[in-house]
TrEMBL record, chains A, B:
Domain S-Me-THD N-terminal intervals: 7-163
InterPro entries assigned to the protein according to its UniProt record, in alphabetical order: S-Me-THD-like_C, S-Me-THD_C_sf, S-Me-THD_N, S-Me-THD_N_sf
Domain spans labelled S-Me-THD-like C-terminal: 168-352
Organism: Vineibacter terrae
SUPFAM superfamilies assigned: CV3147-like
Protein name in UniProt: DUF917 domain-containing protein
Pfam family, one: S-Me-THD_N
Lineage summary: Bacteria, Pseudomonadati, Pseudomonadota, Alphaproteobacteria, Hyphomicrobiales
Amino acid sequence: MRELSADDIEALAVGAWILGTGGGGSPYHGLLNMRRLYDEGLRVTLMDPQALADGDDVAVVSYMGAPLVTQERLVDSRMTARSVEVMEEYIGRKFRAVMAIEIGGGNAMQPLMAAAHLKIPVVDADAMGRAYPEAQMTTFAVGDLAPAPLTSIDPRGNEVIVSRAATWKWMERTSRKVCTEFGSIAATCKAPRTGAEVKRWGIPYTTTKAINLGKAVMDANRRHEDPIAAILKAERGKRLLAGKVVEVERRTTEGFLRGRAVLESDGRETIVLDFQNEWTVAWHDGRPLASTPELICVLDSDSGEAIGTEMVRYGQRVTVIVLPSPEIFLTPRGLQNVGPRAFGHDIDFRSVFSS
Amino acid sequence: MRELSADDIEALAVGAWILGTGGGGSPYHGLLNMRRLYDEGLRVTLMDPQALADGDDVAVVSYMGAPLVTQERLVDSRMTARSVEVMEEYIGRKFRAVMAIEIGGGNAMQPLMAAAHLKIPVVDADAMGRAYPEAQMTTFAVGDLAPAPLTSIDPRGNEVIVSRAATWKWMERTSRKVCTEFGSIAATCKAPRTGAEVKRWGIPYTTTKAINLGKAVMDANRRHEDPIAAILKAERGKRLLAGKVVEVERRTTEGFLRGRAVLESDGRETIVLDFQNEWTVAWHDGRPLASTPELICVLDSDSGEAIGTEMVRYGQRVTVIVLPSPEIFLTPRGLQNVGPRAFGHDIDFRSVFSS
């Protein structure tokens, strides 16, 4: 158990945005919330998942919806805390701690906001190790844990509890529709997990990983060294290409941001990057170069900062890197939930690290 | 408190369909369920609302969604009972009785099915006195009672609790989206009402009214008398016209069945009937002849049976009658919720009974 410093949280925002692999929304608004809460004297502590008792109750939080909407309806730290309180009222127990469902993007910040208000620690773990667009794309779903209950909250005072879901996919469908009606963004508290479940199925130490990743980038920039080299070293990643964005195609469909970006590499080759919120597959001449569940990250070639699928635009100089996936998503059941076919691409997954 | 006979329930199906004013869905599938439950030896008792203690909890049930869907996914009496059980689990109390939100159409049968399974009585009352398409179109909304909580159930095992709603309109929006995702039909248990609330805001004795109306039609047919005259006498209604359906326009939009039927009266006049699930306004030469909240009923000219807006078709010989509205909907607040403007028609309500 250690108290997070203000610097840790700044680094978390940078690292989480990289782990967002283009999606998950920028952590920037969450960061602004956390700066304010720290200015007000609130503090957040980070808890080792191994310190959880098997019977502890852990709240799992996230903002659900279209990240773009948060540019109009700002992230409100009290809403996330409220989603946890509604869950406590529903299950009739208090939570020992709170954790992120996804460490990639803005949702890395959500447990911190809830923790600051509720004065409970944040567990150093998540259930994606990155960002993914759908509710069944988690280690908890791979582990076949219960998908329900879930609470969903909007700022007007509307609150919904999905008390039972036939499957994870049904939880996704039902909660997505509620979120859409709430204005395409909702604060949610996912199915509570026991300490035993978090220890068995959570991906440990991803908060620390994101903080360290962010620090590597910030330190490299401070020393005028190559930030991308620092990322690749910290995460044992692989550089796919450097080049220029020459075309972007983007459409908002069924609550997701879908499309593709076309890049021209410095060696004059054309690379296509598909996305569904997150980058899913990198193509060259119709053949996949890299794909989910490995993390495809598009970074500003100078600063090493992540570029979101909603922000990528013509003319940007970018470097595309690939970071390793958590082991659990490389299993048959993992690939079923988050492999290329889960995103509609009829190709087998092949690791860029095995070639 | 009296036990309903099998004949009462047959009559209820006929009377409720007339009070549906074209919407609410046919009570036929509900009737089939009740015949089966009565064959199995279950019985339902009807309770005078005045017999409720102020502090009694009353469950308010309905099927929500597109009536047409029930022709593929049959009404299941256990689903309605389950929606009540989920509400009991949520509020932590058992219900004293169950009542209909709308006595018009198939929802007149819903409390009977729940009552048969749960072995509690049905309160002889509802909150519409007819059928209306939206959640805020009830006496409970006119009385500004709390719109939440609501439970919504599908046959796959999905269950949602709308635990808080900013307004009645928000309850309508949120629960409608859930229902749409469940396949455009869901069994719902609306916000529980106390005995005091039912006595103050419910419309009393509408179950008995529907039974008597159905009996009047069935008796007249048995005696080869005019069933429509029997309805007008029982309900102090007014005959608007008799004629033939010459045109029907129907579209399913935003979860509702909208459109218009054009009738040619026996006097060669052209009458247009608009509908949103229920018949809303009758027009002649662009002037309103009759409108909601008064009950516009389109009946088969021979049998006196109601014709639903989803069933009306070219060539039918019909008689259009108007029945009086419950007093509460004629107040300014009532008209705001269910008057012509609530259905998008920019006209003032004028009673056919005052002219």
